[in-house]
Design brief:
heterodimer, A: mainly alpha, 5 helices, B: about 575 residues, mainly alpha
Chain lengths: ~200, ~575
């Protein structure tokens, strides 16, 4: 298995030197997927920007609709960003064979807290009369933020699996790296969504 | 199979692992029929799943076009096999024809089937990097097929808003009268995209991380590059359309107003989201067809591909420019005329790299020892017919001409001159070329040539009349032209009948192909492992390749794939990629 010669002998059917992948396959596959996801969110956000620009001057937010709680959401944003940083630090520790379960767990809990805080915000907005069909703002708000929340939820489930594996000691570097890449994407997309949609 | 974690762990890369695997026990021989042909993770079986599903869908798409062309040639007469065609039948049939032929025939056959078959074999590895993801890809695709077919059976029938699904027609059931059919259609399209997304992730990762030792970037066969570039294009452009599809489903089912101007939405927005995907999609299917042509003309012309790197760079350039041309579909949709000017310019620019590829192929053919085998005929036919489609596209890219031609049969004939060569002529080139490898037997050459000539002539006899009709102003979305006196001027109905009769010939001659295909699978003459004396790695594997592809061990690569008629080789006019250099030569 290790019998890989550095140089092939001339004319012999020896194996040529192996190429070590520059990017591990799981990571590369995830990166390609993230490119698609970026374009997916770009589609939503540009559609929202165009619809907002089409609105008659002074009619935004549309009449009868509450203003979005941009200040309160700042806290949610901070929670998510901290979670992203913590998972990154947890990966750094994992890579040098000093895995930290508590860092991983805190990142996981903060991510879940973000979904909870956003859910609380949705309940308040629904109470204030903003629904999926009440206006273009409502439609786009629930669509974009909901899609993002779905991505967060999926990634939290993946992080949950990762945590179980971390405890058992079977967490592979590829799995961690792929989860981290997706989490960085989800966390990094949020400030852009926040700035475009809430203001 | 190629488990990344494991391969990465012992530093040998995946090939060390794959090598042992190929020499050792395979352990997958006792599986039942279901596990082997339906639940398989083998890239070749998944290719056949996509290929045969695509062929089955082509029958559905072909039946739809038969019914509505009969209606246009003989308006109001009952069509054999369908009955009287109502207006909503007509709409459902053209929608089905368009979406099936693009999403369920061209994409699965050109990208998924050929990509799955060729990429691992041509780069010399035992399977895709993510085999289970590959299996999931086909299963999601199959679900989308079932949903699409079911949409014919629900109340109101199948969706009839054309394959472009413009709102408000597609968004409100009060307009399209298909409350269920339209949602099922868009769900099927979205699932199909997910399937190809999974496939594309696999293709890119496999090419990057699983190439045979010694295979450098410029030693990769052109068809593999083309399928990879097409997959990247697809994955980069499909996001906005999936976003639009979600918005359209919400408009249809929940009552949101993303595309309803009365409530603050914007119907043009859909057109932007759709064509931002829709135009790169043209190149998503074109590039694999170009790649197939490159393989076939070099193998059957016994000559090195002229300007390998130019072809690769022009393909990349085409891919990039294709993201900046989409609004040429919307010149009369009310976009700003200044924007129309910009998109006219970009549209004319994109013809340059495509023309360059055609020139390179002609330069490859110059001085080649051309053997007019069936695959070669199809490849030459592809270059010629696609040229017609490309040249007529220049008229339509200019916004001034497009305002007159928009939505006439001229547009329709134009994109069929691009699309038929891509989806059928190039596919036939690929199937006839790789058939010996896929099934271990040869196809019948004489019947193959009959099929080629009748198909090509009848194809031209369909669409040349439609060009003439379009130039005379015949509108493409009219169900019964007899209601419009200006569409019934002298000779116009004759042209419609000519096109329909030619279509009947085109469809019936496909029976020759199907018969030849099925007969050859079981009773054709046995093929050895390299019947065309080709260079690329798939011809080094046995025909058909077993599970694991290369039973003698995965190959090394010493040179590019197009070393035909090399001066150092004397009488032998091919020089396989895996053959080690002779003793004493420079490696």
């Amino acid at each position: 298995m290790e019998a890989v010669l550095p140089q092939p002998q001339r004319g012999s059917p020896q194996r040529l030197p192996q190429r070590r992948p520059v990017v591990p396959s799981a990571m590369l596959g995830m990166l390609v997927f993230i490119v698609t996801e970026i374009m997916f969110f770009a589609g939503f956000i540009s559609a929202f920007t165009i619809s907002k620009a089409n609105a008659v001057m002074g009619m935004w937010p549309p009449p009868g609709q509450p203003r979005l709680p941009a200040e309160a959401t700042l806290l949610n944003t901070a929670v998510l960003l901290v979670s992203g940083v913590l998972l990154f630090v947890a990966y750094r520790r994992f890579r040098v064979n000093a895995p930290s379960k508590s860092l991983y767990l805190v990142a996981f809990v903060l991510g879940a807290a973000f979904v909870g805080l956003q859910g609380r915000e949705w309940v308040m907005l629904l109470g204030a009369g903003m629904t999926m069909t009440s206006s273009t703002l409502g439609s786009f708000f629930y669509l974009i933020v909901g899609t993002h929340a779905l991505h967060v939820a999926v990634c939290i489930v993946a992080m949950g699996f990762g945590f179980v594996r971390l405890q058992k000691g079977t967490l592979s570097r590829e799995f961690f790296l792929a989860t981290l890449s997706f989490w960085v994407f989800v966390v990094g997309a949020w400030p852009i969504i926040y700035l475009r949609v809430y203001f | 199979m190629s488990s990344t974690a494991e391969a990465h762990g012992h530093g040998g890369g995946q090939h060390a692992h794959g090598h042992d695997h190929a020499q050792g026990d395979h352990g997958h021989h006792d599986q039942g029929w279901f596990m082997k042909y339906f639940w398989s993770t083998d890239h070749k079986i998944i290719c056949f799943q996509y290929l045969f599903t695509g062929m089955f869908m082509a029958v559905i798409g072909g039946f739809a076009v038969y019914v509505f062309r009969m209606q246009l040639a003989f308006p109001g007469m009952p069509v054999p096999g369908w009955g009287r065609v109502t207006a909503s039948d007509y709409n459902a049939l053209i929608t089905t024809h368009g979406s099936v032929m693009i999403f369920w025939v061209a994409m699965p056959v050109l990208i998924a089937a050929l990509g799955n078959y060729l990429i691992p074999l041509m780069i010399g590895c035992d399977d895709m990097v993510f085999p289970r993801l590959n299996r999931l890809s086909y299963q999601i695709f199959l679900v989308s097929v079932v949903i699409l077919i079911l949409s014919f059976l629900v109340q109101g029938g199948a969706f009839g808003g054309a394959w472009t699904a413009y709102p408000p027609l597609s968004a409100k059931s009060a307009f399209n009268l298909t409350p269920m059919g339209s949602t099922l259609w868009i769900t099927a399209v979205a699932l199909e995209f997910v399937a190809f997304l999974l496939g594309g992730i696999n293709f890119v990762t496999t090419l990057m991380n699983s190439r045979a030792p010694g295979m450098k970037m410029f030693d990769v066969p052109m068809v593999v590059w083309m399928i990879i570039i097409a997959s990247i294009l697809f994955m980069a452009s499909v996001g906005p359309l999936v976003a639009g599809a979600v918005m359209l489903i919400f408009d249809q089912q929940i009552g949101t107003a993303f595309f309803d101007p009365a409530k603050g939405g914007d119907p043009i927005l859909w057109q932007h989201l759709f064509w931002f995907f829709g135009h790169p999609e043209v190149y998503v299917v074109l590039l694999p067809a170009m790649g197939i042509t490159a393989e076939v003309i070099t193998v059957h012309g016994r000559k090195k591909l002229f300007a390998y790197r130019t072809v690769l760079y022009t393909a990349i350039a085409t891919g990039i420019i294709s993201f900046f041309v989409w609004a040429h579909h919307q010149f009369i949709a009310g976009i700003d005329p200044r924007m129309a000017n910009i998109f006219t310019v970009t549209t004319l620019i994109i013809s340059i790299p495509v023309a360059e590829m055609v020139f390179v192929y002609i330069a490859t053919l110059y001085g080649a020892s051309i053997r007019l085998t069936t695959p070669m005929l199809w490849a030459l036919g592809f270059i010629g017919e696609f040229l017609m489609g490309g040249v007529t596209g220049i008229f339509l890219g200019a916004s001034g001409a497009d305002i007159y031609f928009h939505d006439t049969y001229f547009v329709l004939a134009h994109f069929h001159y691009t699309f038929f060569p891509i989806a059928f002529i190039a596919t036939f080139a690929a199937i006839t070329h790789w058939f010996p490898k896929m099934f271990g037997r040869m196809m019948n050459e004489a019947w193959g040539k009959v099929h080629f000539w009748v198909t090509t002539i009848s194809f031209n006899m369909i669409f040349i009349p439609l060009f003439l009709l379009g130039a005379r102003g015949d509108h493409r979305r009219i169900y019964d032209p007899t209601h419009f006196p200006e569409l019934m001027r002298a000779g116009m109905q004759d042209l419609r009948v000519l096109a329909t009769v030619s279509l009947l010939i085109l469809i019936s001659v496909q029976v020759v192909f199907v018969a030849n295909f099925i007969y050859s699978i079981f009773w054709g003459p046995k093929a050895d492992k390299n019947p065309w004396r080709a260079n690329s790695l798939e011809w080094h594997a046995p025909s058909p390749p077993p599970h694991g592809n290369f039973p003698e061990g995965l190959p090394n690569v010493y040179r590019g794939p197009y070393e035909y008629a090399h001066p150092d080789r004397g009488e032998d006019d091919h020089w396989p990629q895996h053959e080690p250099p002779p003793e004493g030569a420079k490696a």
